[in-house]
C-alpha cells in the first residue's frame, strides 16, 4: 500500500536558509511535513510541473518565505528557529 505524500511545510528549496537558522539534525526540515492526498499534493505542485504550482495567489512556499524574510528585515537580524516556527504556525492557523 502506498503511503500518502508528505508535503514539506518548510520549503525544501530553501533548506540551506533553514539550516542557517538551526534546522539541522533532529530538527531538520524533513521533520516538518504534512500528509495529504496524492491528488491534492500533485495539484499544488502543478500536476508534476512545480513551476506551474507556484503561480497561484497565496501559494504556500512563496507566501511563507516572503513572511519569514520580511520578519528578518523587521528584526534586523537572522530569525531563531523558534521564531521561524512561531511564524509558520501562525500562518498555518490563518489558512
UniProtKB/TrEMBL annotation:
Pfam families the record matches: DUF2380
Protein name: DUF2380 domain-containing protein
Organism: Cystobacter ferrugineus
Amino acid at each position: 500500500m502506498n503511503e500518502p505524500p508528505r508535503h514539506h511545510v518548510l520549503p525544501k528549496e530553501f533548506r540551506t536558509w533553514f539550516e542557517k537558522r538551526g534546522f539541522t539534525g533532529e530538527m531538520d526540515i524533513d521533520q516538518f511535513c504534512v500528509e495529504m492526498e496524492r491528488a491534492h499534493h500533485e495539484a499544488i505542485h502543478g500536476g508534476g510541473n512545480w513551476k506551474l504550482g507556484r503561480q497561484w495567489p497565496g501559494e504556500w512556499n512563496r507566501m511563507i518565505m516572503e513572511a519569514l524574510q520580511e520578519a528578518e528585515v523587521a528584526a534586523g537580524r537572522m530569525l531563531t528557529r523558534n521564531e521561524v516556527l512561531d511564524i509558520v504556525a501562525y500562518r498555518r492557523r490563518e489558512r
